[in-house]
Amino acid sequence: MSIREELLEIVGKGNYSDDVAVLETYSKDFSLVPAGMPNYVVKPAGAEEVSRIITLANEKLMPVVPVSSGAHFNGAAIPRQGGIILDLSRMNKILEVDGLNRRVRVEAGVTWEQLTRELGKNGFRMIMPLLPHPRRSVVTDYLEREIPTNTVYDYGEPLQSMEVVWPTGEIFRMGSASVTGYPDSPSKGGNPSGPGIDFYRFLQGAQGTMGVVTWANLKIEYKPKMDKVLFAPVNNLSYAIDFLYRVLKQRIGQECLILNNIDLAAIIASDAPGDIDRLRAVLPPWTLIMVISGMQRRPEEKIQYEEEFLGNVLRNEYTEISLTDSLPGVPGLGKKMLSLLREPWPAGATYWKDRYRGACQSLFFISRPVMAPWFIDRMTEVAVGYDYPASDIGVYLQPIEHNRACRLEFNLFYEPDSDMEVIRGLYREAARVLLDEGALFTQPYGELAAMVYERAGGYTAALKRVKKVFDPNNIMNPGNLCF
Q: I need a labelling partner for 245 at 20 to 30 A (CA). Which of 43, 178, 186, 435 fits?
């Protein structure tokens, strides 16, 4: 029996394709990574079918590339060596919402749009990264360690126990979801650790090279009873970062982030791209956005306490910062911004990173907040060398764990029909320079992965040995990371 016939037998005619037009849709994404053509596309219904497909791929020594959503930005789902696209979009069930334990169990194909809508009906929310694409997989974003806008330590790790199909085809459940009788047992799958090893760490950041997660438990939170969005126009970024060191360690605020004027304009513009330049002209160079919230217990008192604390700090220590519920030149932004921080980007609308020039390449890494201005200067120097206007670089600074660290993101907006090669060169050179200066790339994609792993010889060798144990035939997404 041919591989085509066996795949058809596993998933059925309606969930299989080798049509060239269909294959081409999986050959590229929104990134600068070169296209790669798969041989087959299959859409399994669950873990059993995923297991059978992976077992078959091992027999035929055929690469398998898992794809869990309809929006990819970094090239990790492009088949570099052909093979089988394992499209998990059919596995899109919200399996249970456990409000008592603030937990939701979802399949890998569940999107941000789908999950936020369902949780909202029950008064819950996800702690989410900034404006995820509505068609992105929630599970994938947390496996890829996307950073949430909420800086509170308790919320920084939403991923709990999960089910995975290993590269050998074995189905495995980890943590407290591995007990007999789950999910009907008293254990609710909240603890991701064990048995023996924290396998969930093993899968985070693996870009589909270490197995296929079929469902996961995620933390959810109650919607706050009260919210107040505060804005601070910022001219001196270092001063604002120092202010955040002072207040965030006191667990003040929920969402907190800093955007430069072009990123903020691209997000809030009513009419893009025409309205973006107008907004850039009236927005401050940087805007600090902070949300203070009253939760389930005594919300008014919590809001009052945090406002009084901020007021004292601003009056007595940071007199150059003014936190108010409005931003000059942008009336009514508070209510709009709260929705933007709690919802994915609107379905059907051009994604915010593509509104200005038609395309965007992002470069992001982890750093100490105090180093952010230094990295911004280095990025500016590289951009000038490529005749890319420094004022057109979007910058997003996301504090992590009460400002213990931060994610710094540079957005390079470009016209896809004419600027792609310039942006590719700029991206490559900027990544090299920032890496040399100490940037920590915890999500290395494409060419960046090669730069990162070649500088960590011992770690790379150990990772390859582990890969050989779990994926002896190297069928899972070969060509990514250091594999």
A: 435
